[in-house]
User: Which sequence fits this backbone?
């Protein structure tokens, strides 16, 4: 195969793909904190948005009615989620400013037309994967209704002591129920309540992971994603040239 004028365009395309992968994978804070409007309930989420910590001020009951403590926790979760999204947006904007001004170094100007000879085994593998991925996508589309039902089904997890229940809609926390119809809430201190909250969040995440539909282990879609994970290396291997 021969490519002349299109060689530089191909190089620029690979360079832009690499730049965008750096932008999207740019550094971002690993944890993000949020609190309720009273400032007495505090929650931390990780980079994926999962709740990894929860705590209450020692005198939380002076600011929050026990009957709405669950709502205050949910409010803190939402605030931490907003902080996470804001930090991500700032990181992407900063990465774009840093990399946007860096042009891709031009490739060496070839003396004549560039001969490109894709490896036959790689082409065969790619075509096979594309065919398998297409059939796999069709099969997954047939189960889309079931997947949608899963996403809309509230999955709950209870704390070790059974005093706190967290409900999740997919990855999103939508419900926090704290036992208030017994003496427990009146006798538990802030550390005990926080411990129950953390174990309930962990149990809810585990329940969501268990209920989630799983992709087959020999997935062509996953194999195709791995093959093209590094755009520059993939283009170089496919076209038999270094860009």
Assistant:
């Amino acid at each position: 195969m021969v490519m002349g004028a299109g060689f530089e365009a191909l190089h620029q395309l690979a360079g832009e793909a690499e730049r965008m992968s750096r932008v999207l994978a740019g550094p971002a804070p690993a944890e993000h904190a949020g609190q309720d409007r009273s400032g007495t309930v505090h929650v931390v989420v990780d980079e994926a948005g999962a709740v990894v910590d929860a705590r209450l001020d020692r005198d939380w009951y002076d600011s929050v009615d026990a009957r709405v403590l669950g709502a205050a926790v949910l409010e803190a979760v939402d605030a931490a989620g907003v902080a996470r999204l804001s930090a991500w947006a700032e990181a992407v904007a900063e990465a774009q400013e840093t990399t946007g001004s860096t042009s891709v170094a031009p490739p060496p100007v070839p003396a004549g037309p560039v001969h490109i000879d894709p490896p036959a085994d790689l082409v065969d593998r790619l075509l096979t994967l594309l065919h398998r991925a297409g059939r796999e996508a069709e099969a997954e589309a047939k189960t889309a209704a079931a997947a949608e039902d899963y996403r809309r089904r509230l999955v709950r997890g209870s704390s070790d002591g059974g005093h706190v229940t967290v409900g999740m809609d997919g990855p999103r926390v939508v419900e926090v129920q704290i036992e208030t119809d017994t003496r427990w809430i009146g006798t538990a201190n802030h550390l005990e309540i926080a411990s129950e909250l953390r174990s309930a969040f962990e149990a809810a995440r585990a329940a969501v992971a268990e209920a989630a539909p799983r992709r087959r282990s020999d997935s062509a879609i996953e194999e195709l994603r791995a093959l093209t994970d590094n755009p520059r290396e993939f283009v170089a291997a496919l076209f038999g040239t270094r860009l």
